[in-house]
Design a protein that fits this description.
461 residues, alpha/beta, 9-stranded mixed beta sheet, 11 helices, 21 strands
Length: 461
Amino acid sequence: MSNWSRRDFLRTGALAAVTLSGGAVTAQEQAAGEQPTDGGAVLSCVTFKLDVTPEIGTTMAYSTHRERKNSIYIRGAVFDDGEKRVVWAACDYLFICGETYIAWREKIAEAAGTQPLNVFLHSIHTHESMWVAPEYNPGPGEDWRKVTDQEYCDKTIAELTALIAEKCAGPWRPIAKLYTAEQRVWGLGACRRVLDEDGKLVDIRWSECSNPKMHQLPVGVIDPLLRSVVFEDNAGEKFLAMHFYATHPQTESLRDSVSPDVPGYALRMAEAQFPGMDQVYFNGCGGNVTLGKYNVIEDDEGIAFLGSRLGKYIIANLGALIEREMGKIEVVHATFDVPINEELIKEMPDNRGNRQYVLKTIDLWRQSELSRVSFGPEVHLLSIDFSEVCIEYQLYAQSLIPTLFLGTAAYGNCTMQYIPIAEAYGDGSFESSPGCCMVKPEIEQSLKKAIAEVLADLTER
C-alpha cells in the first residue's frame, strides 16, 4: 500500500458527485472525432481481458493448483466521456482483500489515468480459484495455511496494469448506442436461509446440497433478475456486454484445479454465440444465495448443467435488447461507518490469517464505501465495496428506483466477509456466525443509509 491511509482514500471525493480528469482529451482524439447521431458528446471505451491462470503448484483459496483444466481471467472496460474516466473490472477470484485490494486499485487507476475511487474492482466469488490476500499469510511462528502466493499477486497486477495502460494508449472505441435487458432466471439462485411460514430459520441450504428435501423447499428471498448492459459503436457493432446476477456461483470448492465455474461456462457460451462482443460478469449481493437447490449433478457435469442454464439466459438477454438514452458519465460516492464487532472476530477460528490481520489493522476498516455510476438517465450501476453482502441490500437498492435499470456488483474489498441483515443475527444463520461475520447488526442501518444516499437524486427524477 502507498504512504496514504485508507481514511484518505475514502475521504477523497467521497459523499459527492465527482468530476475526474485523466486523459480525457486523448480518449476523445483517439475516438477519431466521431459523434453520435444525436450530436451529443462522445462516450468512449477500451476493453481488456487478461488470462490470470496460475502456474501448477500455486496456492489456491482452499487447495493447490495441480492440474490445468480451465483458464481464469480478469475482464473489464475503461469508460471516458471527455471529463470523467472509470474502470470496471471483474476477476475470476474468490476474494481480493486487505491493503492488497487498495494497492491494486491505486495501480489500476494510475495505469488508466484516473483516481482509485473510480476503479470498481470486483471478484465473481468462484471458490476454486484464488484468494488474493498475501497479508494473511503466516509469519514466523504463526501456524495456519498460506492464503496466497506473493509472486502470483505481483505478476498479476504488473501484467494487468501494463495491459490497461496499453489499451488506454488507444485506439479508443466511440460508443454510439446503449442497450439493456432484464430477464427473470429460473433454476439457479435460491436463498441459503430456509425459513418457515413464520419467518424463522429452519435449515441452511449449502452450495453443495445432496439432501433431496432441500431441493424441494421454496426458493426463498432472491433477486431473480439477470441484468445486462450492452454498448454499440458508431459502426453498429455491439462490442461489450456487462451482466449482473446475484448468487454464490460455485458448484464445488475443494478440487485441485482453478475454475471460473458456472459464470465462466456461461460466458464461453455467449462468446461463441456473439463473436466480437466482450462478455463480463459481475456478482451481485449473493451472500445468502446459493446454487444448492439446483446443484444436483457432481463434478464438471454440474458446472456444465448450471453453466449452460446461465449461458442460455445471457444469450436470451443479448437477443432482447432495449435501447436506452445515453449521456455523460455520472459518479456518486458515499462513505459509511462499519460497526466492527471485535469480540465476534476474536471467536473466529485460526485456520486463516484474516482474523489476526483484521485485528492488527482494524482502524483501516471502520469505514467503507459504495458508488453509483450512471451512463445517462436510464442506466445505473451500483458498486458495493464489501464482499458477501446479503441479497436484501440489493433488493432494497432496487426498491428505491423501481422503474430504472440498476446493475449491482458486490465482492469488492472482501476483508469484512459476510454482511447480513439485522434479523439474521442470533437465529443460527451461517452469515452471522463467528467464523463468517465481523460486523454488528447496526451494519444494516449504516449500509442502507449509504445506498439511499447514492441513489437519492435518481428517486427524485
